[in-house]
Amino acid sequence: MMKLKEIVRNTLAMIFRVLLSRKLKVCEVGEGSRVNFWRIRPYHGGIFKVGEKSLIRAEMVYEREGASIEIGDRTFVGRGLFTVADRLVIGNDVMISWDVTISDHNSHSLKFSERSHDVEMNAFQGIKLWDCVKVAPVRIGDKAWIGFGCSLLKGVTVGEGAVIGANSVVTKDVPPWSVVAGNPAKLIREIPESER
After folding, report:
1. Buried b vs exposed e over 18-41: b needs ≥16 C-beta within 10 Å?
2. 139-189: per-residue pLDDT in tens?
3. DSSP state of 110
4. Which entry of 44, 105, 108, 117 is annotated as an active-site residue?
5. Residue 68 near residue 84 (C-beta atoms within 8 A)
6. Does the annotation count 108 as an active-site position?
7. Which of 69, 132, 177, 184 has the highest Cβ tally under 10 A?
8. Quick count: other Cβ atoms within 10 Å of Cβ 88?
9. Distance, C-alpha 10 to centroid of its chain
10. Nearest CA to 190 among 176, 182, 178?
């Protein structure tokens, strides 16, 4: 029974990977990595790269042409939601727990006059205007650990070896080898050499 499940899963993964490759400019997955390709919503001209021996389960939504998601080696990404209009870079040996949301954009303008027609245009006309939406890449350094239920917002860089406590909202850069938590996330302590 287990072998049948594995055969079906691998066949479906292969089919979805082929479909994904047709829409993306680049689709590269390293040896030994497993990706839930059916959870990826591509946009033409996008880039998707995963290193070796990584496990990727999150839903990934490409918001516009040319958006890029790059994930390193030996990285685990649990079920969550990543929305990318520009770029998301995740390093090597990173752990991202379940229910994590990462967005490299505000999605809508803060000014009502600029977002007043967003629902009508997006839902009914299939048009999204990005000229009044703030967008900035998100970067997660090697060896970082993002706890469950966290939200990482546009322009954030998470330093190497940093730990983000569960349900935190990260609005600013996280220093390397530090622990942050809260809403908004604040420095709890630095991680000493003996704990790295």
Report:
1. eebbebbeebebeeebebbbebbe
2. 999 999 999 999 999 999 999 999 999 999 999 999 999 999 999 999 999
3. S
4. 108
5. yes
6. yes
7. 69
8. 22
9. 23
10. 178
Give the DSSP per-residue string, 56-96. Answer: E-SEEEE-STT-EEEE-SS-EE-S-EEEESSEEEE-SS-EE
Please report the pLDDT score of residue 1 as a whole number.
60
pLDDT in tens, 27-79: 899 999 999 988 998 888 899 999 999 999 999 999 999 999 999 999 999 99
Would you state the structure tokens that stand for residue 81, as one six-digit string? 């939601």
- In this prediction, residue 106 carries a pLDDT of 94
For residue 158, give both structure tokens: 């998470």
In angstroms, what CA-CA distances link 18 with 11, 58, 163, 174, 178?
Answer: 11, 19, 35, 37, 40
For tokens 């954030």, name the residue.
Answer: 156
CA–chain centroid gap for 32, Å, is 20
Residue of 77, 75, 67 whose CA lies nearest to 99: 77
The answer to whether domain 1-190 has CATH 2.160.10.10 is yes
Q: Which residues pair with 151 in a beta bridge?
A: 101, 169
What is the separation of C-alpha 113 from the centre of its chain, rounded to a whole number of angstroms? 30
